[in-house]
Design a protein that fits this description.
This protein is α/β, with parallel strands linked by helices. It has 10 helices and 16 strands.
Amino acid sequence: MDKSKPWLICIDLDGTTIKSDGFSISHANKLAIKKAKELGHIICIVSGRPPRSVIDIYNSLELNTLISSYNGAFIYDPKNNDNVIASIGIDAKVVYEIINNPLIKEKSKAILLEKDNVPYLNTISHELFEQCQLYNSLLIVDDLNNALKDCKNINACLIETFNNVEFEKYSQVLDKYKNEIIYREWPKPGLKSVVIDITAPKAHKGNAAEILASFYDIPRERTIAFGDGSNDYEIISWVKHGVKMKNGNKTLDVVCNDVTDYTNNDGGVGKYLNKFFDLKIEF
């Protein structure tokens, strides 16, 4: 592999680049990302988070590249008037049918719709507030159907279940739309409820990496990605060199090319970049 030319380096955030507290970045990660950037490599955040909960980390790392949010559903340029490069959504008619399904309506604690970094929530949910950073930009609406009226598509639909509601019951409903959506659950330790994250089939991190590589004119053979979760499966599969975090999900074992020696809490990404690109950093 030619490492003298620019590479596209795609980094996940939670469980990968940032520590488990959800916001801290290790010294090793900061140093290595800065050095890789100085050498001409392109470092892009590719996260499941909405843009508003990525931008502070982006600025902390002093990046000037595109951001991919919502697991690839929304790619934009924060350094160019937030110019949208790609916005991939679920057909609003499909979203309407899902959120108005009797089981979904009766068994859901809260439903959140995300469209181009604008969140619409039908009720107060501290779980979704925390996970999606809704405090400063939230639009509470009595009827989510009204929010759908002027939308052709939605980047993401998140459903928080009531406690003890079996995820399989939701799956039975959502599987009817398997050609129009993909979905994952966010299990939370200590919580009996889960959050179900619904996006369009093409809204995945692998597709995001392909768009980013094309945008920066970098061939696939010079792409590397780091991830820890099941939502990183497609990007780890697509790039030339997919790296699973030491603390990563076992589902990535079948597609990754390598595993970091250190976890997200111990600078796993930075220490791997240092070795991979021979950055000669002494931590």
